[in-house]
Amino acid sequence: MDSKEEDTVKEQSRSVGYLQLIRANVDFRYLWSGEIISLFGDWFNLIGSAALIAQLTGSGLAVGGLFVIRMLAQFVGTQVGGVAADRYNRKRLLISTDLARAVIVLGFLFVRSPDHVWLLYALTILLMAISGVFFPTRSAILPDITTKQEIGTANALSATTWSVMLAIGAALGGIAAGQWGIYQAFAIDALTFLVSAGLISRMSYEAPPTEEAAGLVAVAQDYLDGFRYLRREPDVLFITLHKGALGLFIAGGIANVAMARVSQTLFVIGEGGGTGLGLLFAIVGLGTGVGPLLSRLLTGDRGPALRRSLIPLYLLGSLGLAVAATLASFENVMLGMFLRGFAVGGIWVFSTQLLYQLVDHKLLGRVLSVEIAMFTLGSAISAAFAGWALDATSLELDGLFRLMALGGLIPALLWLAWMRLGRPKEAEPTPSPDGEEWRLIE
Questions:
Q1: How far is CA 258 from CA 48, 67, 364, 425, in A?
Q2: What DSSP assignment string belongs to 12-79?
Q3: What is the rounded distance in angstroms from the CA atom of residue 107 to the CA atom of residue 119?
Q4: Is residue 5 in some structural domain?
Q5: pLDDT < 50 stretches in the chain
Q6: What backbone phi and psi angles, to 5 degrees, belong to 430?
Q7: Pick from 40, 234, 307, 346: CA 20 to 30 A from residue 240's CA?
Q8: Is 11 helix (H, G, I), strand (E, B) or coil?
Q9: Residue range 160-183, pLDDT digits in tens
């Protein structure tokens, strides 16, 4: 390859900057703006529902049950969402799921007494099942509306947006629930879904032509094809399991239950501890936001660097949990949660970026849905365990945090063994929606 060709390859593989992406890509700007608005409301709902059920029942097991239901319902939804994202118009799926969620959230306004807790659970199941369709669809549409130079930046920015809105939405959601009232938080959540749907509707996205067969048999075949692909590609399967490890050991349900218990029993700030819980979610959001941005300065979008970075990130997450386990003060817990969030954000973004590099566009929705499903399943299991252990055994909060810290070492060791003894797959050309083959930076 002569110097001119080398310069061309380098130019084609160079990632764009964050501001450049937002300014130049109108479709991404609409999708991203909708994401900001809807995520803002999501955290109002999470803080509000957790504070409401704690207020109505006074049971840690009931709060843990809420997180279990949220995770299991989303797990079921992703099984449908992955196939739907690969078969149908992704833009229309995003709009319809936003509208449906707006209607469902309004039902939370009718939960007024302990006798209505069943309604809160039922509405949560519907809300999270539909969210299970929305999230893999939103992830799968990114390669449709970005170029090969933009996809890495878009992925990192999308994940950072989730984190920033966790910080802002959780903090404001905690203030709204603790100072203004829980039901106002639910009303704001419903409004954000409507605004998100309106923004996404302005995208000029056109679905790539497909020749998918109709009928339940064909849908079931598509669903099974995703698992057959993962069975043939053990490296891709291993990468999809990283989010499951996060949910099971250091993030997700077990962390949510632990933070809820800290805010409701040890450091109670605001009505029902809602403000304190919001602050804890906010500091986690700050960590998950800066984590991938700072880590990506060292790794870029290079596959080998992304793989290697996962191990120190797991170790950092365990360190943060060990710091929180001292329970010396609320500020100490916040520091530990920041470090944990930093690690979780990096692992989340880098594992997804590896999948963007390795997985064919036609299968991407199903693979991403498995990734999200593993996280929700792991979160549900860990939330159930945490709620049960804190209520029915002698395990205390400090012991739960230490257990999580040790758990974070398990995926780090397994991933190290896979990189040394397994068969990691190099990034291969992946067909873009228009049929042109491309590859990301290796």
A1: 17, 11, 33, 37
A2: HHPPPPHHHHHHH-HHHHHHHHHHHHHHHHHHHHHHHHHHHHHHHH--HHHHHHHHHHHHHHHHHHHH
A3: 8
A4: no
A5: 1-13, 213, 429-442
A6: -115, 125
A7: 40
A8: helix
A9: 787 777 667 766 776 766 667 788
pLDDT computed for residue 3 by the predictor = 45
Nearest Cα to Cα of residue 239 among 83, 353, 373: 353
State residue 337's pLDDT score.
92
The DSSP 8-state label assigned to residue 179 in this structure reads: I
Q: For residue 49, what are the contacts with CB-CB under 8 A and spacing of at least 6? A: 66, 108, 120, 124
Give the residue numbers spanning the domain of 54.
Answer: 26-204+213-425
Structure tokens at 398: 């400090």
Q: SS3 of 430, please?
A: strand
- Using CB atoms within 10 Å of the CB of residue 80, give its burial: 0 to 12 exposed, 13 to 18 middle, 19+ buried: middle
Is 437 among the domain residues? no
- Rounded Cα distance, 45 and 274, in Å: 12
Domain count, the chain: 1
pLDDT at 414: 93
Beta bridge partners of 437: 431
Residue 121 lies in a domain: yes
Kindly report the CATH number assigned to the domain that includes residue 139: 1.20.1250.20
Q: What is the pTM of this model?
A: 0.73
Return the pLDDT at 426.
62
pLDDT in tens, 202-225: 988 776 655 554 555 566 666 677
Looking only at the bridges linking them, the beta strands covering 437-438 and 430-431 are antiparallel
Partners of residue 431 on adjacent β-strands: 437
Question: Shortest CA distance to 121 belongs to which of 180, 84, 72, 171?
Answer: 72
Here the tokens at position 180 are 């203004």
pLDDT of residue 166: 67
At 430 the pLDDT is 40
> Cβ contacts of residue 258 below 8 Å, gap of 6+?
386, 397, 400, 401, 404
> DSSP per residue over 311-334, as a string?
HHHHHHHHHHHHHHTT---HHHHH
**Measured distance CA(400)–CA(378) in Å, rounded:** 16
Q: Residue 211, class by beta-carbon neighbours within 10 Å (0-12 exposed, 13-18 middle, 19+ buried)?
A: exposed
Asked whether residue 156 is domain-assigned, the answer is yes
CA proximity to 100, closest of 75, 77, 69, 121:
77
Q: Are 337 and 259 in contact (CB under 8 A)?
A: yes
What's the pLDDT score for residue 366?
79
